[in-house]
Specification:
The complex is a heterodimer of chains A (about 400) and B (about 220).
Chain A: H1 2-14, H2 16-52, E1 56-60, H3 64-73, E2 82-83, H4 84-92, E3 96-106, E4 117-121, H5 124-129, E5 133-136, E6 144-147, H6 149-155, E7 162-164, E8 180-187, E9 198-201, H7 202-209, E10 212-213, E11 227-229, E12 238-239, E13 258-259, E14 267-268, E15 270-275, H8 278-287, E16 295-298, H9 300-343, H10 345-354, H11 358-399
Parallel strand pairs in A: 4-9, 6-8
Antiparallel strand pairs in A: 1-15, 1-16, 2-14, 3-4, 3-15, 5-8, 6-9, 7-8, 10-13, 11-12
Helix pairs in contact in A: 1-2, 1-11, 2-9, 2-11, 3-9
Chain B: E1 2-10, E2 17-25, E3 30-34, H1 41-49, E4 56-61, E5 64-65, H2 71-81, E6 82-85, H3 97-101, H4 115-127, H5 143-155, E7 161-165, H6 173-190, E8 193-198, E9 209-212
Parallel strand pairs in B: 3-8, 3-9, 6-7, 7-8
Antiparallel strand pairs in B: 1-2, 1-4, 4-5
Helix pairs in contact in B: 5-6
The chains are: A alpha+beta (about 400), B alpha/beta (about 220).
Chain lengths: ~400, ~220
């Protein structure tokens, strides 16, 4: 077989144009399903890891899938919100700790850099996700934010810089104003959706929403045109729309920021729930199992497993398509090889006339096909490996 | 010695009939088969080489009766004992000159490629004057050089018999004469018997013996 392999290599090299086309066609046929499989495995691992590390999520009743995607990957948006009271109820139950999440706004897009979700949360979130800063500090003051590493890299922002939130609806002129946030730090890479988000205190998120605001101090003496009614000193004053809220929280105006209304009623889009024990987890699930309630508690691993089932049904479809493509390629390969054999009939005839054994003639032809398949498989495997290696971040970016 | 007795052969669906009652060729002789086209000269070479199986009769080369060998044995005998030179050289394009000469060692598991054979191939190439081209692609050689490479391939395994089928058919008269001289000299040096087919009557005098081929055709097939 050594001699047959030698002759096959020389022949393939001599016809290298044809060989390269065959190898490339075969390699593509193998590479495509291989890469899809590897990418889907990576997708599964990434998505399952995040879900697996999040025991429970509290949110408004509605789509469990939407709620899981929202709380874990900052995607989609629940149709309704819960309140701080709901999160506090979890804390007060002593069964679990609730980490509030308020994800309704995004940063403003910049040329070449899309906006990312602004996650309003508490300092416990960073501890729960094991997030640490690579530069600067975690947000400590109202109006500060910390950037995910991916977003910081893309946007070029660093501690001390500022960024603007995007209005929830650009066409709603009476809606919330963009708020300028000061970057206090950049998180270390975590290869998770946290890399492509901006984190701030939940109170800052409420300021963006317009629940809290700051403005110049108004008294009867400052500018009477800003007053709606002239009440007594003890009752304070009511100002009209002429008083513009601050769109930046600075050291000078930070103290002027305040919230109107009952803090227990302030909205959250979800809350991560970290039970103190397995028993507590089961008890909590039982507590929120009531279908009449406005709040639901979901188990992300279970919800994401359902999502993955759907994804892998799609994978099967990809496999069927790939098999069909492979069949077509093999038929074409057969055609090319049979035409090639015809062209090489004289060569085979010479071999026979010199005394070549039947076995060697078969070996010569098999060796060529084997070498082509081997080269194509090697190329496809290397391509698949490189694709997954190089496209790892791209897949994450696609996911998160 | 080559001994042929009562050899008969015909192609299927053809009126061609070859009959050789008796033919003896002594060891080391150089023999030329002369005759018109279609008279069966190439067919006889193919029968002696075992490429074509005879209908009846026998062909004996020394102590081996070719006509009684099975196909695998005939192939091995041909490879080891008979050197073949073809009119169109039939060299392999994708191999260099040295690899073309060494081809017989690469096409049968019973014949192993050794360092001695490599050295012999290079010696043969040097002897015919193309040793400096051993690493060159065969397609870059001239007609004369390619014919010499084909002769080296035929002589590599030191065959007892060299069968040359119109090896000068594509050469000009000058090259043709030089090629025949080279073949005669190299086969004599190797102690091999040479049987050559040619239409060129000017070359006949250089051989030990000429076999006029017309006499071997059945009367109705004889070309006029």
């Amino acid at each position: 077989m050594t001699q047959a392999l030698y002759l096959a290599i020389r022949s393939l090299w001599w016809h290298r144009g044809r060989s390269l086309i065959l190898i490339a066609s075969l390699a593509l046929t193998i590479w495509l399903p291989l890469t899809v499989r590897l990418a889907l495995r990576q997708f599964q691992d990434e998505i399952a890891l995040r879900a697996g590390s999040t025991p429970l999520v509290l949110g408004a009743v509605g789509s469990r899938m939407d709620l899981a995607l929202h709380a874990l990957y900052f995607e989609s948006r629940p149709p309704a919100v819960i309140t701080m009271r709901d999160a506090r109820a979890v804390d007060e139950s002593q069964l679990a700790a609730a980490i509030p999440l308020h994800i309704r706004f995004r940063t403003q897009s910049r040329p070449g850099v899309d906006g990312v979700p602004i996650v309003g949360t508490s300092p416990e979130y960073f501890e729960f996700r094991g997030l640490q800063t690579a530069a600067g500090e975690l947000p400590a003051l109202l109006g500060e934010c910390v950037l995910g590493s991916g977003y910081a890299e893309r946007s070029g922002l660093k501690p001390g810089d500022a960024l603007l939130s995007a209005p929830e609806n650009a066409l709603n002129l009476a809606g919330n104003y963009p708020l300028q946030l000061r970057v206090s730090g950049v998180l270390a890479t975590s290869h998770s959706p946290d890399d492509f988000a901006v984190f701030t205190d939940v109170q800052t998120a409420w300021v963006i929403e317009g629940i809290g605001h700051g403005h110049q101090e108004i008294t009867k003496e400052t500018d009477p045109t800003l007053l709606m009614e002239n009440a007594s000193e003890q009752q304070g004053v009511t100002v009209n729309r002429g008083v513009l809220p601050y769109i930046e929280i600075t050291d000078e105006n930070r103290d002027s920021f305040h919230f109107h209304g009952d803090p227990d009623e302030f909205p959250l889009t979800a809350a991560l729930v970290v039970p103190v024990s397995e028993k507590a987890r089961v008890l909590l699930l039982g507590r929120y199992a009531d279908t009449e309630g406005k709040v639901q508690c979901i188990q992300p691993p279970q919800v994401i497993a359902e999502l993955l089932e759907m994804v892998f049904r799609i994978e099967q479809l990809v496999w069927i398509c790939s098999l069909a493509a492979a069949l077509v390629t093999l038929l074409l390969l057969g055609l090319v090889l049979s035409l090639s054999l015809r062209l090489r009939e004289n060569e085979m005839q010479t071999m026979f006339r010199l005394g070549c054994s039947r076995l060697t003639i078969i070996q010569l032809q098999v060796a060529e096909v084997l070498l082509l398949l081997l080269a194509a498989t090697g190329l496809a495997a290397t391509g698949g490996w490189l694709t997954v290696l190089a496209a790892g971040n791209a897949i994450r970016a696609l996911l998160f | 010695m080559i001994q042929i007795e009562q050899l008969r052969f015909s192609y299927r669906d053809s009126v061609f009939r070859l009959h050789i009652p008796e033919l003896r060729i002594e060891d080391g002789q150089s023999v030329v088969l002369a005759g018109p086209s279609g008279s069966g000269k190439t067919t006889l070479l193919n029968l002696i080489a075992g490429i074509l199986p005879a209908d009846s009769g026998s062909i004996r080369i020394d102590n081996t009766c070719i006509t009684q060998l099975q196909d695998p044995a005939r192939r091995l005998f041909r490879l080891q004992q008979i050197g073949l030179v073809f009119q169109d050289f039939q060299l392999i394009d994708y191999l260099d000159v040295l690899d073309n000469v060494l081809l017989p060692c690469r096409i049968h598991p019973s014949v192993r490629l050794t360092q001695e054979l490599r050295a012999r191939a290079q010696e043969l190439l040097d002897a015919v004057g193309i040793g400096q081209h051993s690493g060159r692609s065969i397609v870059r050689l001239s007609q004369g050089e390619r014919q010499r490479a084909a002769l080296c391939r035929a002589l590599l395994l030191s065959p007892r018999l060299v069968l040359a089928d119109e090896p000068t058919g594509n050469l000009d008269p000058g090259n043709s004469g030089r090629m025949v001289e080279l073949m005669l000299a190299e086969t004599k040096r190797a102690g091999a018997t040479l049987m050559m087919v040619t239409h060129d009557h000017s070359l006949l005098s250089r051989f030990d013996r000429t076999i006029p081929f017309e006499s071997f055709l059945e009367p109705r097939e004889r070309v006029g």
